[in-house]
Each structure stands twice: as C-alpha cells, then as structure tokens.
User: Which sequence fits this backbone?
C-alpha cells in the first residue's frame, strides 16, 4: 500500500516538473524570438526634380513599377494607400536612390502602418496581413531619435505599429530619401507596411475672409 502511494506521488511530481519545464521552454522561446524594429529615414536630398537614380511621387504611381506588374512605390494623393515590404535585411539600393515631389501639392508628412509579414521587398503581393505581427517602429541606429531633417515631429501608436511624421514641408520638385533601417535577431524578418502622404490644406478664401472680419467685429463691439 505504501509502495503504491510512493509510486503515485513520484508520478505526480514528475508530471508537474514536466509541465513546469515545458512552460519555461515556451517562455524562453518567446524571449529568444526578438521583434523586428524598423526606423524610417526621410531626409532631404540636394537638388530638385528627377535624375537617373530618382523618381517622382506621381511617376512611381503611374508607371515605374506598373511596368513590372507591381504596386506603385508611393501614392500621388493624400489618403491613398500604398503597401510595400521592408525589414531586415534592408534594401541597401535605396541608400543611393531618392524620390521627389512631382505633385502640385506641398507634402507635410508621411504615415506608415505595419500590417503583417512579407517575404520579398520587391513584391508586395507576398504580404500576409496579420495584426499580431511581431514588429514595430523605433530607434534602430541608437542615436536616441527617429526624427528626419525634414519633419520636426513624429508620433507612434501605443503598439508601435503606426508612425506619422509631420511638421515639415516638401515643396513641389524637392527631393527626399526613403530609407528603412531595420534590426532583428532572426533575419530574414520582413514586414508589410501601408503608407500615405500627409498634406495640410491651405486656408481657403472664406476662411481668410472670416479672419479679416473677426477683428472688425471686435473693434465695433469695443466702440
């Protein structure tokens, strides 16, 4: 009887130790799977207009990648979404490539949203949309900042998956970089990203008129 109890107790302890070990293994594996960190770099490039190693925002929409059967690299209007793939290893060819604003609008910022995983930086059709993707925007190069020399402000969502650059101006014709620094302990590690341009509307004539009328009304009230 005592021998049976001893065997039962030993078996129970062994099962508990096995469960604890399995749980620790799962935790350890989750710790070892580092997330993908992406830092967009929008910096100004000298000169204006196009060149052999550059492409306009509108041109990217209407022909550059369309000839390859792929999606455009940037949209030509606010609120239009372009989806592409970026991550670690990053696309070093973009270090010597630039874009320029060939629209008739002043670009005031860019927005980006991580929407899933990808397997080919040249083909956005490889993206699998997954809200739980282990990737976020942040400081990759360790300089303590992800601000560009064009935009003075940025905001990141609580989950790190959406970033918006604002507070700058890219006038028609001006050039800029589109580099994505990236870091992961387990490359290749690529993410799908939705992107859009931000344009702040200029005050229209009615708003200007209202701004002129308000001080006149205030003066009349004082009198």
Assistant:
């Amino acid at each position: 009887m005592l021998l049976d109890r001893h065997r039962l107790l030993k078996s129970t302890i062994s099962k508990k130790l096995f469960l604890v070990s399995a749980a620790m293994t799962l935790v350890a594996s989750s710790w070892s799977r580092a997330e993908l960190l992406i830092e967009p770099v929008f910096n100004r490039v000298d000169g204006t207009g196009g060149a052999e190693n550059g492409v306009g925002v509108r041109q990217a929409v209407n022909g550059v990648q369309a000839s390859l059967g792929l999606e455009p690299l940037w949209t030509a209007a606010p609120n239009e979404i372009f989806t592409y793939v970026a991550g670690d290893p990053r696309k070093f060819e973009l270090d010597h490539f630039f874009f320029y604003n060939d629209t008739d609008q002043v670009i005031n910022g860019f927005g980006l949203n991580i929407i899933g995983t990808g397997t080919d930086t040249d083909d956005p059709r490889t993206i699998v949309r997954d809200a739980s993707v282990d990737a976020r925007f942040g400081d990759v190069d360790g300089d303590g900042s992800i601000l560009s020399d064009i935009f003075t402000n940025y905001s990141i969502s609580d989950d790190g998956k959406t970033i918006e650059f604002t507070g700058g101006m890219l006038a028609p014709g001006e050039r800029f970089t589109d580099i994505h620094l990236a870091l992961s302990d387990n490359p290749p590690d690529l993410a799908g990203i939705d992107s859009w341009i931000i344009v702040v509307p200029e005050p229209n004539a009615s708003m200007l008129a209202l701004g002129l009328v308000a001080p006149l009304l205030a003066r009349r009230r004082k009198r």
